[in-house]
Specification:
The chain is mainly alpha-helical and 194 residues long. It folds into three domains: 52 residues; 43 residues; 48 residues, no CATH class. A two-stranded antiparallel ribbon has the order 1-2. Helix 4 packs across helix 5.
Amino acid sequence: MPDSEKTYPQNEASFPDVDKSDKKLKKKQKQKRRRQNVVMRKTQRKQPLPQSERLKIAPKWLEEYDISVQGKNIIKAYRKRFHIEPKCALEELKMLNYPLTEEQIQKFHEAERNKVIQEHNKKRKRREMLEAKREARRLKKEGALNVAEMFPDSDDRFFFIAGYTSGGAPYGVTWEETNLKPYENPFDNADEND
């Protein structure tokens, strides 16, 4: 039968390719909208009011603030309510003559110090880890990363020889326990996971 005489059914079920492509297109459009919404949510952070306006609104908010319901940490609550930095919240509460105890102020400063130390330690650990990886890669590229040189306390049975018995038999961690073949470089698998 020639192409011109062929008849095609007119219901949608008979055109599965068209339905699939429409569904794929709709799905891609939906995914694109979701990605855009996520980006918008990340960039749309609540903007704090100017300080002059905050200082006008804050006295009323402080009167309504209920410690039993909203918690004892007034500095944290003020910061969250007005979307400002913790130090700014403390300064504004002082400007408003809110009765802060020395204990509250000390806790605030201690928390700020701990936060800075924690961030510093986190960055330092990450930096050390990255430097160790870079060093291992550099040594590997130079060809100086010979497993036998890396692990002098090993043999074809033990990955690490911790010591010897009184009879002279070695003991320690076997290659099988480390899931490595004898003299296999343990850093080869780590590079693939990066």
